[in-house]
Amino acid sequence: MIEVENLTKRYGDTLAVHDLSFTVEPGAVTGFLGPNGAGKSTTMRMIAGLDRPTSGSVRVNGSVYRDSVAPMAELGSLLEVRAAHTGRSARNHLVALAQTAGLGRRRVDEVLELVGLQDVAADRVGRFSLGMGQRLGIAAALLGSPRTVVLDEPVNGLDPDGVRWIRTMLRGLADEGRTVFVSSHLMSEMAQTATRLVVVGRGRLIADSTVEEFVAASTSTSVVVRSRDAGRLRDLLRGPHVTVTSDEADVLQVTGLSAEQVGAVAASAGVPLSELAAVRASLEDAYLSATHGEVEYAAASTEGVRR
Ligand SMILES: Nc1ncnc2c1ncn2[C@@H]1O[C@H](COP(=O)(O)OP(=O)(O)OP(=O)(O)O)[C@@H](O)[C@H]1O
């Protein structure tokens, strides 16, 4: 479990993390989302004890991580890619790490196999691709069979096979009862991997909920309705909190009413429908709507550029 309480980190004039509080529970994959510069990496570094909070506190599995007697069994983290010595082989890199924690070579071979690097274990790390480097970083994080795992952008640089492998591995770790906290910018990937989310913007908490609650709370579901009498239906549906748009002559997109309500309006006026469907928003839609205005480096819209 990770307990973050009133955590604040200031770098000179930059308030990277501002009074952040949340708990990451064991037994689930929790996604950590936020625009660039929102404070995710800073928060993760403070969780791993690599950076000191300006104020506030972090507890990992109930105690302050720095005070832990067997740190590798408590927390495994992937925070900086290519932290390995480039002249060493992958196996020697892991053996060196294992020795500091009193772990044997057998565990090194286990994690090499777990991340699929057994065939290149003797190769120098300096010749590894980005994806192989990520796998090695994950192997290092898992060496001590930690109860809590913190991974910053683990799918970065991985091909689709690698992305799927990470997804399966993270879910497996959660199923074993471990705490899994993982940041990513890939929303579709997060939607498939995480069941809980912590969302931050400009160092502050935006949401701490299940993925489902987040999607339901951040965006309104829309309704798509097809009718040969779409024009009349459009007039009937008008209301103060209802928006109706149309890209095709006989199709309307309605927000502010449920599919049942749209169906009832059509039925009572005798408007024939050939299609009526509620369209669930995606995690990406919800994320963009929740973090709107929190983006540090917003790009101009194409419309703005054209003007
Ligand atoms: N060592 C540092 N010194 C000064 N400022 C820093 C330092 N580390 C981070 N910052 C600043 O703190 C803010 C938060 O950065 P952080 O890297 O934690 O965000 P992030 O959410 O991980 O972003 P990204 O998604 O781009 O990785 C940014 O404004 C960043 O410039």
Automatic annotation (TrEMBL):
It comes from the Bacteria. GO terms for molecular function: ATP binding; ATP hydrolysis activity. Belongs to the ABC transporter superfamily. Coiled coil: none annotated. Residues 2-227 form the ABC transporter domain. This is ABC-2 type transport system ATP-binding protein. Pfam families: ABC_tran. Keywords: ATP-binding, Nucleotide-binding, Transport. The keyword Hydrolase does not apply. InterPro entries: AAA+_ATPase, ABC_transporter-like_ATP-bd, P-loop_NTPase.
